[in-house]
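Why does residue order matter? Because the sequence determines the fold. Keep that principle in mind as you read this record.
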Amino acid sequence: MKLFFSIFTNWGFKKIVYLIRSKIFGEKRFVYYKKGNEKWAYISYIPDVFYRRDDERYLNTHQNKREILVIGDVFAKLGYNFVVELFNSSKISDKYYYDIVFGLEPNFCIQAKKNPNALKIYYATGAYFKHQNLVIKDRTDYFNNKHKCNVPYYRLVAEHSACDMADFIFQIGSKYTLQTYPEKLIYKMSTLHQSSNFYRHLSIQDKLSCYKRNEYLWLGGSGSILKGLDLILDYFIQRTDCILHIVGGIDNEVNRYYAKKINNSNHIHVYGFLDVNSEQFVQIAKHVTFYLFPSASEGGAPGSVIAAMKCGIIPIVSKYASFDEIEELGYRLDDFSIRSIEDAVKWSESLCEQQVERLIKANFDYAQKKWNINVFSKEFEYLLKEKIKCYMDEGDNA
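Structure:
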């Protein structure tokens, strides 16, 4: 009974109805309807957010929560009713004919086939799936061969035809993300800057008074090998003069391999998952000077890189986890090797104090201006208007 009242208090009546329908009937969708709007859009993404838009704690879990609200608002502003359905839901809405089909596979592909005359916009939030699957296998094979382990291929992406079916592709990422795609798809693609779920207001002066030159951070989610944690640990286990902070999950097999070495060290600190807006993370970030993230597949600078930069931490990242201006604000790793990590650390140690402080300030300022919900909103609205007009013009000329 306490659980029921807790859910009712936090969710409200409409949210409870949604929860019941999703649990009993498998329907996971949100419908926006405004009288007078004649056109309909189908959005294959995450509907839960529309029932929890006042739940700040929930919205802070990932930047995509506020971004889907913006996406919905833009469609409504442009005169569209819309259905938001969970991208991998087995219950597909077939109530409406759609003028636009937008979002993620697999439901993007299903609705694109059902609505052949619709404007189809694939929303790509990561690297090209064939690139990701290839580097997952390469990096995992490297780790297993070197350390005599048997780690499975984590985070493989199912084959799909979304890119080929789409009229246009909205890509979260940078010029480096586009390099993961076949040349034949580039003409369809437009890049967007994602927002950030880091909302703490930090003082740059506090950072400049607290940072320690020998402290480094790895912040990431699942797929430890894909995100290069093994390379960082192989290098830093020997560097007892440096402090390494590991925030985020470590895959079980990888954790088992390194657990004894980490536990026997005094310079490597593992925290598990932390809310980047928590006081504990902020205190860690105050002291860290460099962020290491040799990920082999990302949709541009991921949320972890952005959060670090918003804390004034200098990025040392692979090109797939970087952004167009990386050489001005940090260091781009040459490849996925321990030698590359060693070269990057040597670079960080070669900087004078004036250079370090300049980079701390520059990253702090750049990240605040570049990655926020207002920038995302403006870019998304501009692109959507542009592609709708382009599609309509082509129809008129057909």
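The radius of gyration is 22 Å.
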